[in-house]
Design brief:
The complex is a heterodimer of chains A (135) and B (354). Chain A has 135 residues and is mainly alpha-helical. Chain A is built from six helices and no strands. The longest helix of chain A has 32 residues, at 54-85. Chain A is flat, with a radius of gyration of 23 Å. In chain B, helix 7 (155-178) crosses helix 8 (199-223), helix 10 runs antiparallel to helix 13 (313-343) and helix 12 (295-306) runs antiparallel to helix 13 (313-343). Chain B has a domain at 104-343: MetI-like (MetI-like fold, Orthogonal Bundle), CATH 1.10.3720.10. Helices cover 69% and strands 3% of the residues of chain B. Classes of the chains: A mainly alpha (135), B mainly alpha (354). At the A-B interface, helix 1, helix 3, helix 4 and helix 5 of A face helix 3, helix 5, helix 6, helix 7 and helix 8 of B.
Chain lengths: 135, 354
């Protein structure tokens, strides 16, 4: 009997996990459906008659490539060192800190990069400062 | 050691090279790679140190200016930027009437993240137990895809969904029911915003965002429960529920605490989704549905305005908020990671609880 209640609750929990995952995707798609058309990809947001998202999409792509170029080699080389060369203790410590770094809130990282690059070096808002922050 | 290396270096045949490599005798290329990759491996550590030191350096003037007011005042006001009269505290000047109290944001951050954690832990554990102990193996793969789907949804999409779909839904159908609890606990009494913006909606969306973190760790641990202990429990005539209670849960308990700490760290630092849903207000929440702000959301919300402060103190105050957030989330992360490390070594407590 208690087992039955337990499994019903567990099933409910699984449902609470699955339902929102579906709901988020479906509701965003439904809300976006009327606006989905080809010109969304090809026009810029400044287009008066038929505004699109081309600049935002290209920006996102440029951003992603930039992140990949900077963070990719560092990440892979770091991984190679940890796997192949690092003494056991040192490797453990370094891995530990990279895990902790992954847990630092993005808003804090963003603030630091903002302060360091935008104010400190007067770079202005640029793709570069964003790239450094994300990597 | 040197003797061994020399002898190994003298041989040029294929197997010898393998032997040499295995002995740790490195060629020049290997050494270059070792150094370059070693430097790359220290980048996270250096980054962490850099972030922490920049935050501290930037926050110092605000720490001196605010003193203990930072923790005791729930008033955050960057001051009258049009007044030429400055307010001076402890020798540091800020715009007229500037008060940088963080209490509102500390309360907001604490409530949103703790409510999310209290809901997310049982849901994750229950869902994972259902998935790996009850549901047929065939369906486990497809169903766990939804968990990955939840993990892959960008935070801003969660925010948008919470604002436009979940919030209105809750405020119309769920909050009227929940407010009956207000008869027992006044904190649950209304009113709430018509579109659901506020602390509880933000907490519920945060719950969805940290479920994947807790659930994936729990799933890994449940998979590693020794088969012998499970079979032994079943052989003793236990039902599946009793097996889960006596074998699985005691085995994964520490891991759940650790993953809850990691999930908490995520909930503390979550910015854009919370900013969209919590209904930015600079006062502590009036009730559980109330609008307020968290440490992370106020940084994102105020940085732009803070930059127009000619004394530059507002940015310093925001740095102090960020420093507090950084320290809290570093502590939860450190604790979580340390526990994960301790239990994920070879020496797992086999069949604990039996």
């Amino acid at each position: 009997m208690r087992g039955g209640i337990f499994w019903v609750l567990c099933g409910l929990a699984l449902l609470i996990i699955i339902a929102p995952a579906v709901a988020v995707v479906v509701s965003v798609l439904v809300k976006a459906a009327p606006a989905l058309r080809w010109s969304l990809l090809t026009n810029t947001t400044q287009d008066v008659q038929n505004p699109g998202l081309q600049n935002a999409i290209l920006g996102t792509l440029a951003f992603a490539i930039g992140v990949l170029v900077i963070a990719g080699p560092v990440g892979i080389l770091g991984g190679v060192y940890l796997a192949e060369f690092a003494p056991r203790r040192l490797g453990g410590t370094l891995r530990f800190f990279s895990e902790v770094l992954a847990g630092v809130p993005s808003i804090v990282v963003g603030f630091v990069i903002y302060v360091a690059l935008v104010i400190g070096l007067k770079w202005g808002y640029s793709i570069m400062s964003g790239v450094v922050a994300l990597s | 050691m040197i003797l061994v290396r020399r002898r190994a270096g003298g041989m040029t045949t294929g197997p010898a090279r393998v032997e040499r490599a295995a002995r740790g005798d490195l060629t020049i290329g290997d050494r270059v790679l070792q150094w370059v990759s070693g430097i790359a491996a220290t980048v996270p550590l250096a980054g962490l140190g850099l972030i922490l030191s920049i935050m501290i350096v930037w926050a110092i003037p605000a720490i001196i200016y605010s003193g203990t007011t930072f923790f005791t005042s729930d008033k955050f006001f960057i001051g009258n930027l049009y007044s030429t009269v400055l307010t001076t505290h402890n020798g540091i000047s800020a715009p007229h009437g500037a008060v940088y109290g963080a209490l509102t944001f500390i309360i907001g951050t604490f409530f949103t993240s703790v409510i999310a954690l209290i809901l997310a832990v049982p849901i994750s554990v229950g869902g994972v137990l259902m998935l790996s102990e009850w549901i047929p193996r065939r369906l486990e793969g497809p169903l766990s895809t939804f968990l990955e789907l939840l993990a892959g949804i960008p935070s801003v999409v969660f925010g948008f969904w919470g604002l436009t779909v979940l919030g209105p839904l809750l405020s119309q159908h769920f909050y009227p029911v929940l407010s009956h609890l207000g008869a027992i606990i006044p904190f649950f009494k209304g009113p709430w915003a018509y579109n659901g913006q506020g602390m509880l909606t933000a907490s519920l969306v945060l719950t969805l965002m940290i479920i994947p973190i807790i659930a994936s760790t729990t799933r890994e641990l449940v998979k590693r429960v020794p088969v012998l202990a499970r079979e032994g429990a079943l052989a003793l005539g236990m039902s599946r529920y009793e097996m889960v209670r006596v074998v699985t849960i005691p085995y994964v308990r520490t891991g759940i605490i650790a993953s809850a700490l990691l999930g908490w760290g995520r909930a503390l630092g979550e910015t854009i989704a919370v900013l969209l849903i919590i209904g930015v207000a600079f006062n502590p929440p009036a009730n559980i549905y109330g609008t307020t702000s968290t440490l992370a959301s106020v940084i994102a919300n105020q940085l732009d305005e803070a930059l127009s402060d000619f004394t530059g103190m507002a940015v310093r105050a925001i740095a102090e908020l960020g420093l507090l957030l950084l320290i809290i989330s570093l502590l939860t992360n450190l604790a979580g990671r340390l526990i994960v490390r301790r239990i994920s070594g070879e020496a797992l407590p086999v069949g604990r609880g039996i």
